[in-house]
């Protein structure tokens, strides 16, 4: 078959059309779509860049204000700390008493109480406070100063149920309830311990007496240098039915598993000393346990046991009450259990792991209070059991000299009791 000239032209035109179709669909069109997508993405990036530049400009314009807000946030955290607790409240109470020329020996505080406040129809549910009822003697000018300090004192406190009566030498007796406030905030900077200069020695640790003012800086050398011979101030006798007797009463320890195991006789004759010291330096901010013992007329309970960093348990407010702290070692770890006749921590037969404040010893600080009334005769018997190789130091501060409110029973090894 012979191809004519006309057929050749038609085939050429058909080939050119086919080539154009392939070029458009497999080369031009994909690249055109990709170019369009890139241009769209570029526009989006340019828009995002513009938004970021606007935000940067806004931040730079508000930077000074943001820094001021951050500083105010720190100030507010100091005013209402996120970790305000009983120990901080005790220090704050003592500082206030010193600032107004008064003194206090009652460091009993209520349990943590929530403060539900509505402000501009917003419920502030995370605020809380610790309260204490106080009776202070001071001049009227210092009482006005106490009221004025509510504005600037750190942390925030308030006075309520105020009652004034005249006294001798131009003094007034002020009875009031004082509250120290905190606010639960995990992002706020926490309050740090400081070494406050607080009266100590013969004037009692917190009574503001005539003792020399010293900083709490306890060392092992100081203790050894000041320790006299053992002089037990409380006669304690264990009977077969696991009861504790002294010269005035007989009480029975609660039958918990921790006590039953720790009441077994120890045939190794453990080191147990009860010393009466009048002047000693103690850094009680490193206490592993803080025990507060007060009168039955306390607004909360007659005994509070706090494990530093964990929380507190409270007593049953009984005239003769028993409590205990038990330390055990299992393997290379240490564990503890504490209880009163009203509550136990941890519950059941379990123990909680003990993290030490000091690597050399376990420190237990007991804050007591002198007798106040004729019928103020409650007694707390605290049993300290040490089934570990680490020494336990027990310091009892501000207890009544004539009729102690705190009795200590020791069991196990290396338990040293000092009364100040």
DSSP helix fraction: 25-40%
pLDDT averaged over residues? 78
Strand content: 25-35%
**Domain unit count:** 3
Number of helices: 5
Structural class: alpha/beta
Using only CA atoms, what is the Rg? 36 Å
- Give the terminus-to-terminus CA distance: 130 Å
Order of helices and strands: HHEEEEHEEEEHEEEHEEEEEEEEEEEEE
Apparent shape: elongated
The largest pleated sheet is described as:
7 strands, mixed
What strand line-up does the widest sheet have?
12-24-22-20-13-14-15
Instruction: Tell how many strands the DSSP assignment holds.
Output: 24
- The parts where pLDDT drops under 50 for at least 5 residues are 195-278
Please provide a brief summary of the model:
A hairpin with a 4-residue loop joins strand 17 (333-339) and strand 18.
Can you walk me through this structure?
- The protein is 26% helix and 31% strand.
- The chain is an alpha/beta fold and 420 residues long.
- The chain has 3 domains: 1-74; 86-183, Ribosomal protein S6/Translation elongation factor EF1B (Alpha-Beta Plaits, 2-Layer Sandwich), CATH 3.30.70.60; 218-419, no CATH class.
- Strands 12-24-22-20-13-14-15 form a 7-stranded mixed β-sheet, with no helix packed on it. Strands 16, 17, 18, 19, 21 and 23 form a 6-stranded mixed β-sheet that branches.
- A hairpin with a 4-residue loop joins strand 10 and strand 11 (250-252).
- The chain is elongated, with a radius of gyration of 36 Å.
- The model is unreliable at 195-278 (pLDDT under 50).
